[in-house]
Structure formats: structure tokens, C-alpha cells
Amino acid sequence: MAAETGWSLSKVWRIEQGQCGVSVSDMRCLARLYDADEVTVDRLVAESRAGWTKGGRPRKGSEPAG
Question: Is there a domain that residue 63 lies in?
Fold first, then answer.
């Protein structure tokens, strides 16, 4: 994935481990990388925006399980 997106391996690792948030542009890039249709991309972006505050911290109850 790092090669396809141009991201560093450490960024990919942090995303995969849930140690950092994903920007809207990163979300779109990932969704397209996995051949998601535009409806799915828009839904993922909306869910991402709804789950995070502007300060970069998850809203209560929006943290990923696990």
C-alpha cells in the first residue's frame, strides 16, 4: 500500500495499528485503492467526519473496537 499511495511505511503502519487518524483525502485515496465506488467513498468520508472532532481526538463512543 505504501508504494501505491506514496506514503511512508511508518504512516501505513500507524494507520493499520489505529495509532493515527486518517484525513479525508487519505480516506478517499484508500477507498479508491481498494476500488470502492463513489457511493461507498462518500459514506466512508461521512462516517470518518462524524467520528472525529476537529481537535483530532475521537468523539466518545467512536473509538474503533479492539
Answer: no
